[in-house]
Write a structure and sequence with these properties.
Elements lengths: L1 E3 L2 H4 L17 E3 L3 H9 L1 H4 L3 E4 L15 E4 L10 E2 L5 E6 L4 H10 L2 E2 L11 H6 L7 H4 L6 E7 L5 E5 L10 E6 L3 E6 L23 H5 L8 E8 L1 E2 L3 E9 L2 H12 L9 E6 H7 L12 E9 L4 H14 L8 E3 L2 H22 L7 E2 L9 H15 L3 E6 L4 E6 L4 H20 L15 H23 L19
Parallel strand pairs: 2-4, 3-4
Antiparallel strand pairs: 1-2, 5-6, 6-12, 7-13, 8-9, 8-12, 10-11, 14-16, 14-17, 15-16, 15-19, 18-20, 19-20
Length: 492
């Protein structure tokens, strides 16, 4: 196993996209197989070592930033197998945790298959996307990562290697779940008693459901219960054709009506993605795309899977819907071939590039939200975001996954006073989302940045339940301490 402690060589493991700058570590381990991960964790309790599991640094919540703990880097565990049929006659692809999502999707497509989860950051490690139950634009149709995992292999804090196929370990009607392990002996616990929000996306805290599957407890647990080292990913056939479009609107009322009708499948449309850009987002994009209509109040990106035979009919249905809600149909951009769709993806990904370019000239970092609410409450949360920002004179953008009632507000402070005001207002945004029955985090997770907010969402009782489960799997507290659960909950 490779070990590095030269500060110059391990500097990159002290950062991700959270802007946390105070991380520090004695060194970084680079296991090259699952057995080396197991051996490393077996020595943890007796040696007093604690570990942080490092993905590829694309996270936004500081999950991989160490504060004195050793780092286990997953990048050497990057195997990707060819698709195959499993015992349940499902098409799966076995991958190791350090494989890049981009490489996995390309491999699947080369064999004629699609791995549906599509987080915007394609250079993330697949193990991290499972540990964070990641999602993306296609989540509207396909759901988050959880829906596409048939099996995982997890190395527990004890060093036990636990293979978890979906359906093998499930809680009984009494809510009790137990597993016999060689090193940790019997692991037995009650599933959490709290209820999850009624949102279509949620990634905050441990999963809980009646008679739940153990695999779902690990998915989204942010590496706090064990190290996900391998997984079988469920694949679906690559669609024959895709219709992609950027639709512009003169008013937000027309735009929201369009989204509502698309979600109701009006005119027979069937979107797999519904993404939103507000007026301020379009202003950023207009720097590179001057053809964006000057009077547009916002835009929606949509995709629909189709066939060559049905493409014209499906496109006509979308045009009918667009015209019925006064969309700027003539000025909108429809992409039907691969090259045009690649150009449209570039358009969509240009927004963060333009925002980062603007921020690079400022002295402060952005304040961003990741809340989602039930569909019926979306417009209320949206107007709360917008009205609050307008009241304080902030520069801001609102964009993202409108199909899942989950958009990101980014406040872009131009000075430190604005930054302090925006940071204080983040509490108000959290309170509003929770008041509307929403979730603190829909896709980015909790990490270290948002753990205290998680207490607000689940209350002390709920966090204590999470701490109880954490200590069941990691009694010596050696894995990802500080992530998700505030550390002081382990001192009582």
């Amino acid at each position: 196993m490779i070990y590095k402690d030269d500060p110059a060589l391990i500097r990159d493991f002290l950062r991700d996209t959270s802007n946390i700058k105070s991380g520090h570590t004695p060194g970084v381990y680079f296991p090259e197989n699952i057995e080396e991960v197991s051996a490393l964790l077996r020595q943890g309790p007796s040696s007093g070592k604690r570990f942080v599991i490092a993905g590829n640094g694309t996270g936004t919540t500081g999950g991989r930033i160490p504060f004195g703990d050793l780092v286990i880097a997953m990048e050497k565990l990057n195997r990707i197998d060819a698709p195959m049929q499993n015992a349940d006659n499902q098409t799966v692809m076995t991958v190791c945790a350090g494989a890049l999502l981009e490489d996995i999707q390309k491999t699947a497509e080369r064999f004629g298959w699609l791995y549906p989860p599509d987080p915007t950051e394609t250079l993330c490690f697949i193990g991290s996307t499972i540990a964070n139950n990641s999602s993306g634009a296609r989540t509207y149709k396909y759901g988050p990562t959880r829906n596409h995992i048939a099996r995982i292999t997890v190395v527990l804090a004890s060093g036990d290697i636990l293979d978890i196929p979906r359906g093998k370990y499930c809680a009984g009607k009494d809510g009790r779940l137990s597993i016999d392990m060689p090193l940790a002996h019997k692991i037995e616990f009650n599933v959490p008693g709290y209820t999850l929000p009624l949102t279509s996306k949620h990634n905050a805290g441990y999963f809980s459901a009646d008679e739940m599957d153990l695999i779902d407890l690990f998915i989204g647990s942010e590496g706090t219960l064990g190290v996900i080292v391998e997984a079988d990913l469920l694949l679906v056939p690559v669609p024959e054709k895709i219709i992609s479009c950027i639709v512009y609107f003169q008013t937000l009322e027309d735009l929201f009506l369009f989204v509502d009708q698309a979600k109701k499948n009006s005119f027979g449309v069937d979107p797999r993605a519904l993404e939103f850009f507000d007026r301020n987002s379009l202003d950023f994009l207009r720097e590179v795309y001057p053809e964006i209509p000057a009077g547009a109040a916002g835009a929606v990106f949509f995709e629909q899977e189709t066939t060559m035979q049905e493409e014209d009919d499906n496109l006509e249905k979308w045009v009918e819907l667009m015209e019925s809600v006064n969309a700027l149909t003539e000025e909108s951009w429809i992409a039907l071939d691969v090259d045009e769709q690649r150009a449209m993806r570039t358009f969509r990904h240009e927004l963060p590039l333009q925002v980062n370019e603007w921020l690079s000239k400022q002295s402060e970092s952005k304040i961003s939200t990741d809340m989602a609410v039930p569909d019926s409450s979306f417009t209320e949360l949206f107007h709360f975001y917008r009205d609050t920002c307008e009241k304080h004179g902030f520069r801001y953008i609102i964009f993202g996954h409108i199909g899942n009632a989950h958009v990101h507000l980014n406040i872009l402070p131009s000075n430190h006073e604005e930054f302090k005001t925006a940071k204080a207002l983040y509490h108000d945004f959290v309170e509003k989302a929770l008041e509307l029955g929403g979730t603190l985090s829909a896709e980015h997770g909790i990490g270290k940045l948002k753990s205290e907010y998680l207490v607000r969402m689940f209350g002390t009782k709920g966090i204590n339940e999470m701490a109880r489960i954490k200590k069941t799997f990691d009694p010596h507290l050696v894995l990802n301490i500080g992530n998700l659960i505030p550390e002081h909950y382990f001192k009582t």
